Amino acid sequence: MKVFTQKKYGGPEVLNPDEMEKPVPKENEVLVKVKALSINPAEWHLLQGRIWLVRLGFGLTKPRNPVPGADVAGIVEAVGNGVTSFKRGDQVFGRVWNGGLAEYICVQEDKIALMPDGTSFEKAAAIPLAANTAQVALYRTLKVQEGQSLLINGASGGIGSFAVQLAKYYGAEVTAVCSSRNKELVQSLGADHVIDYTHEDFTLHTHQFDLFADLVGNRPLQQIRHLLKPKGRGVFVGFTDARKMMGFMLGGSLLSAVGSRKFFSIDVKTNGKDLEYLGQLVKDGFLKPVIDRVFPFEETPRAFAHLGTRHARGKIVIRL
Per-residue pLDDT tens for 112-130? Predict the structure, then answer.
């Protein structure tokens, strides 16, 4: 089968086309013929390996698994012993941390779900990590409620485009931070107010919010903590570098311990139940995957190069 392998850390140039044997599903695994996949900032960090915590988990000098992971959507080709939820021919979508850039992938039964009816493979592949991260950040961590004010930094990206829609689904008043070229997009997703960061520094905003979701991580904590009301809650998802990541984790914990404002960072584990819930929202029309560009599988390095610009509107998808 065709794959893209990464034998060392670096930029998109370290991704090379390769051939591997088609995997065989083990117990409780499903073999999926991949029809589309999407990539996230998580894949970018794993590609580069610049954050030492990444290397601790995935290989100090080079990736332990040469085939990077991704969000995938495809058709069940075979099932292993013990699988009861899926059968050959089912259309499914899910998240894998290793092996996603391939024609076939084995996935644990509890890490995938049936695709929403009427959804394309490309749109289904855009859902797993981004939508689930937005769901965990807003609902489980910030505990967003109807009528609360929410500021989203990075509202037009992969996670952000889902976060705006989910926040409106839960009844929040959403202020979205994005560039002027993405203003119309976030408004179409439901944003009530837009701060154009190309003309206004959102950290200098005088209005305070009940909740804050930082999906970019491009500003230090001390510049944004005042944006929250007393007893407000903030969550940090995206990080531009290791220093800001540690600043959010350590500084957020300290501020939460000594003050009334609470700050959180999250670690998202995608599972089938969450995917079923998100798929139902897509099916019912409350959630719409936003796709920036679709690349053919042969142009995977170009897709990663586009991901590295950090200016994609919604998700980047690769079609097989």
Answer: 999 999 999 999 999 999 9
